[in-house]
Give the backbone structure.
Amino acid sequence: MKAADWELFGNLLDLPSPAAQVEYLDRVGADDPALRGRLEALLREHERAGNFLENSASAPAGERAAAPANAGEGPGSVIGRYKLLELIGEGGFGAVYMAEQREPVRRKVALKIIKLGMDTRQVTGRFEAERQALALMDHPNIARVLDGGTTDRGRPYFVMELVRGLAADPLL
Amino acid sequence: MYSGAMSEVTRLLNAIQDGDPKAADELVPLVYGELRALAAARLAREMPGQTLQATALVHEAYLRLVGGGPQEWNSRGHFFSAAAEAMRRILIENARRKRSQKRGGNLERVDWSEVRLAVETDDDRLLALDEGLERLEREEPQAAALVKLRFFVGLTGQEAAQALGLSERSATRLWAYARAWLLRELQTPL
């Protein structure tokens, strides 16, 4: 089966140097000049693409201004003693991740971080109040706050028990 | 929430899973209706100036229509793909309506301008992008699906890859291809 354009284009982008890319295009062009033309045009666009489409149409403007692509925490990031595994919920000003705690015990927890671009004093204040309110409560139906702090980027977070249905957390 | 919609969504997700190609087309309007209803309810409740985020709306619609329990990730993926298509329609309708509003009355109940959707993308460019996206869909459907999930719903690359059942490597390559392909179609950067 003939490889799709996107796969060939991926191969082209994987090459380490412009010289290797030219060599690849020459080889492709010997068999299929039209394909070579398509790949060359795509490569030109790729090089001037900048952050085209990288800023989601759905991200609030403030978030975009504050957060260049990939600047925020996400799965794989390590925050304090916790490694983020998966986004399990997102709301107006917070995102909740399933995270792994390594020490002193190894367990899964829920870690809520204030959203990028939302860390104005007012929102941070609301968040702080929520953190304290939750910490005061110790009820079987309320996720217990285990830990809290600020990330390297200065965003408040807190760690809660991972309970079923947390994604529907009304405080999200 | 009306539980009829919830069981209908579950039925359609199962049908998509079983390979029924029409089920996905039926799912989109249901999700579309839920997104609009949610946005209207939220806007009525929230303080003026409050803005909603498409990503948050889609997650909330998912919880309401599918539930918060553990789901197979591919049924979650089908839902998000339907939501991405619904969100694209909403955005495009919004852009078209804003264009035509000069001509007539406004019967719209939801003021989508209060929903933070595509605020920075100018309407003409959004419509041009959408036309390009339709062409891309015919040529490389998965690349178009990826753009919809990332651009219209705001999923991360990793989330979008998972929703489509793609490896991250393939998703990264398709994304690079889609961006270059659409830029070539549009000729001017958004």
